[in-house]
Every structure is written in C-alpha cells, then in structure tokens.
Design goal:
about 230 residues; Jelly Rolls; 7-stranded mixed sheet; 5-stranded antiparallel sheet; 4 helices; 14 strands
Length: about 230
C-alpha cells in the first residue's frame, strides 16, 4: 500500500469513528426503541398513549409530543423516595453540545405538602429541576392536574473539558410519591437532544433550582387551564 493510500485510509477511518461517536452521544433520545441506551428502575415504561381518570368521572389521554413513543415514570400509591423510580443515561458531550434539551409533562393526583419533590431532573447528582404536587395542584386531592408538555434547556457546556478529555454526564429523570401513601404523581419524558443553541426556556444554575417553580408559573397556569378545559397534552 502506498503512502497516499495509507493516509487516505486513515482519514476515512477517523471520519467513520467521529461519525459513530457523534451518533452515540445521546442514544435513543425519543424512546422510539424502548429503553435502549437508558437504564430504568422502578415503575417505568415506554408508551404511546396513556388514558387516566381525571378524578371527576372522566378521562384524560396523554400522547407523545414527538414521534410515536414517550417514557413514563410514575409511582404507585405508597410511600417512597423520588429516586425509587428513574431513567438514566450516561451521555458523552462533544465540543458543540452546549445545551441538553427535553420535554416533560408532570402530572399528579396529590396536593401540597405531599409529593415534595414529585419530579426531579439531575445531572451528575446535581438537581436542575425539582417540582412538587403543590406546584400544579388545584387544592383538591384525587383530581388529576398536569403541566402539559414543557420544553426546557439545561446548559451543559461547563461539563465539557476538551476533545482529549470529553465529559461524560449522567442524566437522570426521577419520580416519587413522597411524604404520604396515597395519590401518586408521575411524568412523561420525550424529545431529548443535545444542541449548540438552546431550544427552549433555559434552566437556571442548580443553586437557583428552587426558583424554577416561580419562573414557570405562567406555563404551569396554562397547563392547569388546559386540564380544566379538557385539552390533553399533545
């Protein structure tokens, strides 16, 4: 093999390796292939359509916001910790992966002060999003309330070091029925992605996570309005 051919083969192989690495950065982001690439524990499932009682004799139907499937994380009506039910993926960041984007639909039959937290998003053990039943409840236990689909973008460029030491972050979505033994909460997850620019509302730094609820008041109010008007999450 000539020197030119060896160089050409090297570049072709290098390009193939880079392409594979880029594709493997976030595996199965829309859950179209069940939980491939994810680790799941507890009451989790990949679903297409979920029909739930609304607490007043009717039903509400939930469906994915993108594609044909979504992840469902919930907890049966018993006391437990929010980390008892979760899905996790170890994600390798590239130099242009500045934001981790995802959509969620948090629902609950509970009310304050229970299920606190009821839903949480963590990266490397740091809590970026934390929501409780009281954030979306209407004051009546046993009534289904939900946020509808909300898109958020978490800045992750700070986890990246350099090309020789690419950062691997651990992304976790978890749900729990905390503080009581009745009225579960849960969440649907869909459309995760890594991008150079934020696709949705940017989440504040972890230290400000407790302020997230107040920052989403307008969006959460819209979710309540949709529940009361019978419009389901799409």
């Amino acid at each position: 093999m000539t020197k030119k051919r060896r160089v050409l083969v090297f570049f072709i192989m290098a390009s193939m390796m880079l392409a594979v690495g880029a594709e493997a950065a976030l595996v199965n982001p829309g859950f179209e292939d069940d939980f491939t690439g994810w680790t799941s524990y507890g009451s989790t499932a990949v679903v297409s359509i979920v029909t739930m009682g609304d607490g007043s004799g009717g039903t509400t139907e939930f469906s994915p916001c993108a594609g044909n499937k979504m992840a469902s994380i919930t907890y049966p009506a018993m006391t437990g910790h929010v980390t008892d039910n979760y899905i996790v993926q170890d994600v390798v960041l590239g130099p242009d992966d500045n934001y981790l984007n995802f959509k969620f639909n948090f629902w609950t039959y509970d009310e304050a002060p229970f299920d606190n937290p009821g839903f949480r998003v963590e990266i490397n053990g740091e809590t970026w999003v934390s929501m409780k039943a009281g954030d979306i409840g209407d004051g009546t236990v046993g009534t289904l309330n939900y946020t509808d689909w909300i898109g958020l973008s978490i800045p992750v460029s700070g986890y990246y070091v350099d090309e020789e030491r690419p950062a691997e972050i651990r992304l976790s979505f978890s749900v729990g029925n905390t503080g009581d033994s009745q009225y579960p909460s849960g969440a649907f997850i869909d459309a995760t992605s890594l991008t150079s620019a934020a696709e949705y509302q940017v989440v504040p730094i972890p230290a400000a996570v407790l302020l997230l609820g107040s920052g989403l008041v307008g969006v959460l109010a819209l979710g309540k309005t949709r529940r009361k008007s019978g419009i389901t999450g799409q």
